[in-house]
Amino acid sequence: MTLPEHARVVVIGAGIHGLSTAWHLAQAWVSGGGGSGSDIVILDKTGVGAGPSGIACGVIRNNYFQPAMRELMAHSVEVWESDPEAFHYHPIGYLQIGPEVMRADVAQIHEEQRAIGYESELIEGEDDCRTYMESIFSDWQAKNISVVLHEKKGGYAENMPSMQGLRRKSEALGVELHTPVQVTGFGVAGGAVTVVETDRGSISCDQVVIAAGPWVRDFWHMLDLPGEVDVLGRDGKHHRRPMWTYWCLQEGTLGVDPTYLLDNVGNMPPVVHLDTDAPLLDDMDGSTVSEDLWGIYYKPDFNFGGVQGGAMPWVVEQSADDVAVDPYGEKSTEFLVTPEFERMWTSALAHCQKRFEGKRPLYRKAPTGGIGAFTPDSFPVFDRFAENAYVIADSNHGYKMIGIGALVAKELLGEDQPLLEPFRFSRFAEGTLHPVSHSPYPWS
Fold first, then answer.
1. What is the value of pTM for the model shown?
2. Bond prior to 242 in cis (omega within 30° of 0)
3. Is the predicted pLDDT of residue 120 greater than 90, yes or no?
4. Domains (range + CATH), the chain
């Protein structure tokens, strides 16, 4: 298909944010008579869901210590619930299970979920937590657990099927998807982007949406935005920080039938996320894997064909400019999934449930996880730059946030969205940073 000479909106990236934004914007134009989907063009250098949206764990949760993130996730869950069939969404719920050091944080999350009408149940104390978890899994055996937060909404979605569902919704409204097309630069006049330059020609435009996942750094540079930013820290001092830090996201699949993880009554269980400060021992030889606070998440998944999940990411020890962000090519599994992760994750599964003891030989090496581009405070940036270039930088909170596209579409139409205000770029210089919990995860 030949690229058009002009589009009112060019969306860069055919992942969760690009597809959702195009769909919601086309929907608003069609229903309001302000245009049509054919005024929107999506460009992707590979194809739909070719980046992290296509292989991420797919967990949908509200479980955030930060009030702004929690409200944003509640909004996204509503979008997932709007068409579970099209999005291949499984509303099985979510369990946040933690040690004493996280008890107050998790209890606060529960109270604030109640305040926004998001249904969840809180269990506190080691004995009550053990009894609750055994009521779900009779072989539950994790140690040092003092709090359980059971979110009754949320769950997980199947990655590529959900991406194709979004594609169908947008194309049904006339949105044009062009792939493979690589964006090579922008033409700027009067401070605004007027042309998107690609390897297949140029497109003049009124607005640009950059929804490129971990490739956001490259577009950031094309817009001549700073590689380092000034951050007013919680200590009241100013710090220079790299705008982008890359983390390696480690996820994998245990090659068992997904029904291997059914609950006590034969139903699909909630997604399990465990954090604990109990020593983690290798279930094969008894050696120590970790004596620090650690965490894992897992779920039965028919899309991946097994029990799928992940653990703590690790920082890529290179400058942001040196990282080759092509984490979804042929070499991705060699780089991303390490023997240390395989040992840790399978031992952690066995720590949680007896049924997983000795199952490491069933671990399956497959392209999951990927590279994530994190902002200075590890939370998203949703903002305009160069007057008409809207950047969606999710800081690896991405796939679950299907509702961002709905909010960005409204902002493209001139309606500022309060849910996005806490994620403006200006927060770094202003010091209006998001609170940090005791979780071991960088985004919590």
1. 0.92
2. no
3. yes
4. 1-92+153-236+377-444 (3.50.50.60), 94-149+245-374 (3.30.9.10)
